[in-house]
Every structure is written in C-alpha cells, then in structure tokens.
Amino acid sequence: MDLGIAGKWALVCGASKGLGLGCAQALAAEGVNVVMVARGATVLEAAGAAIAQASHAVKVLTVAADITTPEGRAAALSVAGGPGTAFDIVVNNAGGPPPGDFRSWDREAWIKAVDANMLTPIELIKATVDGMAERGFGRIVNITSSAVKAPIDILGLSNGARSGLTGFVAGVARSPLAAQGVTINNLLPGKFDTDRIAATLKAASDKTGQSIEDIRRAQQAQIPAGRYGNPQEFGAICAFLCSMHAAYMTGQNVLADGGAYPGTF
C-alpha cells in the first residue's frame, strides 16, 4: 500500500532507539524525510546513518538535543526550514518517568514528569499545527502508553502525565484543525521489547524479589499474542496513522498491546 506521504517532512522525537527509532525507520521507508531528535549524539548519529543508508531517496537529519527543554525544541523546530513551519508530521515521544512508589515522589518529580510527557508534546503541537493547517495536511502522533487505558501501579508518574495529555488531545483534535487536514492521535504501546520494559522489569523484580526472567515469562504468558512487541511493527502502525489513508481518524487512542487489554472499550 502506498501511504501517500513520500516527500513529506517528519519530526520524530526520542528517535535514536526503541519505539521512536521504529517510527523513524518506518516513515523513511515510505519516502518521508526525517528529522531525528534524541539526547545521545553518538547513538543518534549512528541510527540516522543507518536509516539514510537503507533509504537513499530521503533526507535524514539528526539533532542531538533534549526535546523537553525550550532550547531543545527550538533546535529541532529550526531544522526543516524555520520554527515549526515545515513539518508535515510530528511524532511526539519522550522517555517515560521512572517507576516506583508514589509515596517517594516529591513535587519536583511530578513537575518533571508532566513537563516531559504532557507539556512538551503540547508545545510541539502548538508550534506546528498552524503551518500544517495552512498547507492542508498534518499528522501528529503522540506516543503515550497502554497505562492510559489500564494504569500500572508502579508507573504513577506516567499514568498521571500521559492521561493529562490524552485529555488535552481529545479536545484539540476535534477543533477546526480537523477540517483543515490535520489529525492528532495517540499511539498507546503495551509491552514492547525496549529499554523501557527492561527498566520496569527491574523495578518489578526489586519490588517482588522475583527474577527478571520469571517476570518476563509471566508477563508474556498474559499477552494473548504470547510475546512482547517489537519496535518495527510499532513503527508500521505509526506510519499508517501518518498516511493519507488515516485522514478520517483523529482524536483516537490506538492501542498496540498484543491483545493484553481485556476491555471492550
């Protein structure tokens, strides 16, 4: 299927590894020019070079910056031709806050979580949607978490911050932007084989005293698909949401969890 987005420009955050990298790879494979942002320059540049080598027809630019800071956002938004004016696609993604017991989180921990996982995506949406609307095409995909649908006790910081973003998106996605060709959707990963799952496994192990491998096997047994997801299949879902074919989908929470969520709605 031709997704109809070849030649577009995408900003992909947290793109050096994991789910962000999967999204960047999938978009580049569809002919999208990609600006990849992440904090670690060495890993980011290597990831960008690999994508450029695999997808010769596209431009791949890297920005080593912290997207959760005003300076990092300014650096990313200035790359493709002026602050916020030239991106057709934005994939919002920032590392989740650490797991733990809510009793140990102070105000600073909460502010940091909200800043990274709610306010940063909102700032990037604000900076890009008007340009998208003027051009009659825009796709924003926010990588959030399956915890928005089914909160996880040790991920309280993420539960709270990402739910706040979800509520914001529910409103703005249904604003006049929807009639101007701009869609805003949330992509909710369940358990994917990334550094993030490694961190949550360790936290669960520390809390329960079980081995990481035992917890991993138990978790996978509870997923109808019988396994963790991989970043490449996640990226393919993201690319579809960014496509011409997804023009009638906006304000949605798309769950990718191998069937783990048991609810009907």
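Above is the first protein from milestone M3; the second protein from the same milestone is given next.
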Amino acid sequence: MQGSANLNVMMSAARRAGRSLVKDFREVENLQVSSKRAGDFVSRADIAAEKIIQEALMEARPSYGWVGEESDAIEGKDPTRRWIVDPLDGTTNFLHGLPHWAVSIALEHKGEIVSAVIFDAAKDEMFVAEKGQGAWLNDTRLRVSDRRKMIEALFATGVPFANRGELPSTLQDLARLMPTCSGVRRFGAAALDLAYVAAGRYDGYWERGLNAWDIAAGVLLVREAGGLVDGIDTNTNPLETGQLIAAAEPMFDAFAKVIRAG
C-alpha cells in the first residue's frame, strides 16, 4: 500500500517498537513467568516501547496530541489531531511467552480515526488502513469474510478476568451465541481480534470494558475492509463507551441481535 506521510511515520514507529519488543520477548521466555521479576520486566518493556513510539511520532508531528496507555495525555497545539497508542496489546500473552501481541497506533482527526497501524511483530504481520483507501496486510488488500450463515461463523471476544464487572454479561453472551455458531475464540489481544475480522479470519468480534487505545486502529481496519462496527448499545461510539460489535456486513445483523439480546 502506498500510504500517506503520516501512515509511513506510523509504520516506521511500529516497526521500531516491534523490534524492541521482540528482543524483550525472547528474554521473557527465559524468565520464570510466575515471578514478580517477569512482570516487572514486561512492564519495563511496555513502557520502553511506548517511549520509542512517542518519540518517533512527536518528533515527526510535534503539534499533534497524544493518548497512550502507559503515559499522560498530551494536548497538542493542533487540537484536531492526536495519536492514540497501545504499545503492547496482549501484555498477558507477552508475559506468558505466547507470541500473540501487537503494537497499535491510530491517528484521530476531528474525532474520527483516519489512519491505523497494528503490527504483530512476532509474526511480521503489518495491518494498515487509511480512511477511504482500504485496509491491507503487508502487501495484500484485506476484505472481511463473506460468510452469511451464523452456524458457519467463527467469532472472537475477550473474557473478563480478575473479577471484572463485565464477566456476567459476557458469560450470558456466550450462552446465547455458542449454540448458533461454529465457535468462539479468546486470544487475548483486542487489536488483533479486530485485525483478524478485517482479514476475514474471524467473522465477527464483540467485547466490553475496553479503552480507546485497544480498539482505535482496529475499528478503522474493519471499516476499510468492508465491515461494520457499532456499539453493543446501538448507535454509540465504541471509542467513548469501550464496548463494540464488529462483523462483516452480511453477518452483522444476526450476530448483533444475539449479543444485544442480553
């Protein structure tokens, strides 16, 4: 994909952070994952990756604002543009040596996501999208799945952990959805769940209790790949509410009906 100058900056920053994280990931595999040392090490890796991204983006576009998971928000001189960044989505996977995690970077302009990068450094998969320009995985154009039957569909979600408040609702969702479809996956990285919907690997995805940096890039990827994204509560903004449904258009209404029935 021949991207804009902003997208090229984002891809470069994601690759730099990804290289740092891959190096740290190899070290995590040598640590005793149940120890405090491993958790502290991953926290440092996460913060270091965000610093790499922030320095790269803010150097290239010093007037833009910034929202990141590991740092304080920055009000830019240009109030219409801001970066939304998760330097390590899938931290628990990373901590346990599971190679399913990603760097997520989105650019928001006047309240709308216009550029997106999700980089799975462990697999060297770079998902990118720009408003009106489509979605891509490395050099391949992405399209959402064209499946139309729920019983053939594979969905993804996140199951809340550590007694988080969304657990009862999610368990009820699963009880309604599982009998109607071919399966549900819980891989532990919201950004990659959305990227996989864009790539047609999943037919749909839903989750509650998310942050803007978890999903900002993925929302644009799905839409630019021809999919639909809405809040679980109809006609709400997922970046504001932290809950969403994403799916290919032929599947969306039937899928959303099951999730919204709770």
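Note on the second protein: The CA atoms of residues 116 and 217 lie 4 Å apart.
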